[in-house]
């Protein structure tokens, strides 16, 4: 199949106009249903405000004679958490509107009105002036409905050749891509902190452990750089994950594409994706990119937990190898002598959250048929939590590394214990015997 001189895969991202499915259920309908006046609270509103807030008919509500109950409304809304995607949603809508105008599906005047309206909505959101409404369900419907309120009829054309299914996946991939970039930067900052700590303690020999038993003497730099290597692999996993997720779902619509002459390569390129996704059903149902992302975060969390465990042990009276500064420590309410390395204990503890986020999404996806199912609304909160937690863990680990002092005298006094040179002595004897022979 060729569109605008570019080859498309035969998986029918764009369904032929003659398709009976396209005629029966056009995914490009851009008309909004009439509004019913039902009163419901909006997010963050007081009871008095709620009485003045009309509840709108849903974008999908054309065949329905009644609105959903307040209980269902509260249970099914996602705006309370998916409004985090507002910037990506607006970015995707800008690209989509520009493509529609380029293809002659909307006028350039309508495109310009849409783009100006989206700019104003973004400004209002960032200034805290935007009214997020629960009866508009999610970030996409909130923005589109606000755009209609702002510019009128042209806004209704923005939904042409687009479904919430491909829209949300586009937003989510963009958000995850941005999140990976932030995590990679935090990883680099932790690596720099560990290398700085190593350079500030050159020549310091510490006991190396296996089974938590003294094994051989090692340079502190050797040990610290082991964590640098682990984080480098963690970064590599995220880079690979980013490359695999960087494909554009726009144009898949609900699951079977559209009969309208869209240019998926144009929107994909405008949004910085490698290419459009090849199969429309896969495009709206795939969550592998999220599972891979959460898996990479979970492995990173385990590495940070191990670092936290080591430093908690080394800060104890029994080891006494490090002293954290007061600025990264806490005390006890009844034991004034205590100085606790709480940040690293919490790094160790919060790793459980990141692992749990991965398990949550694995369990969510394990029994779902193709293509989209409403269960997948639950994919975002674990990702938001995982990203927030791993960024915090990386940041505080880097901060802690720059605020600890190694107790050289204490460490040197402990080195004679434990027969740390036993392996070196054995190697010496083997070499001596081999030379005699």
TrEMBL record:
Class in the EC hierarchy, top level: lyase
Pfam families attached to this UniProt entry: Lyase_1 (PF00206)
Cellular component, GO, one term: cytosol
Catalyses which reaction(s): 2-(N(omega)-L-arginino)succinate = fumarate + L-arginine
EC annotation from Swiss-Prot or TrEMBL: 4.3.2.1
UniProt-listed GO biological process terms: L-arginine biosynthetic process via ornithine
Keywords attached to this entry: Amino-acid biosynthesis, Arginine biosynthesis, Lyase
Gene3D superfamilies xrefs: Fumarase/aspartase (C-terminal domain) (1.10.40.30), Fumarase/aspartase (Central domain) (1.20.200.10), Fumarase/aspartase (N-terminal domain) (1.10.275.10)
Pathway: Amino-acid biosynthesis; L-arginine biosynthesis; L-arginine from L-ornithine and carbamoyl phosphate: step 3/3
Position of the signal peptide: none
Keyword Amino-acid biosynthesis appears in the UniProt entry: yes
Transmembrane helix as UniProt keyword: no
InterPro entries named among the record's database cross-references: Argininosuccinate_lyase, Fumarase/histidase_N, Fumarate_lyase_CS, Fumarate_lyase_fam, Fumarate_lyase_N, L-Aspartase-like
GO molecular function list: argininosuccinate lyase activity
Residue ranges constituting the Fumarate lyase N-terminal domain according to the UniProt record: 62-356
HAMAP family reported for this sequence: Arg_succ_lyase
PANTHER family assigned: ARGININOSUCCINATE LYASE
Similarity comment text for this entry: Belongs to the lyase 1 family. Argininosuccinate lyase subfamily.
Name the record gives this protein: argininosuccinate lyase
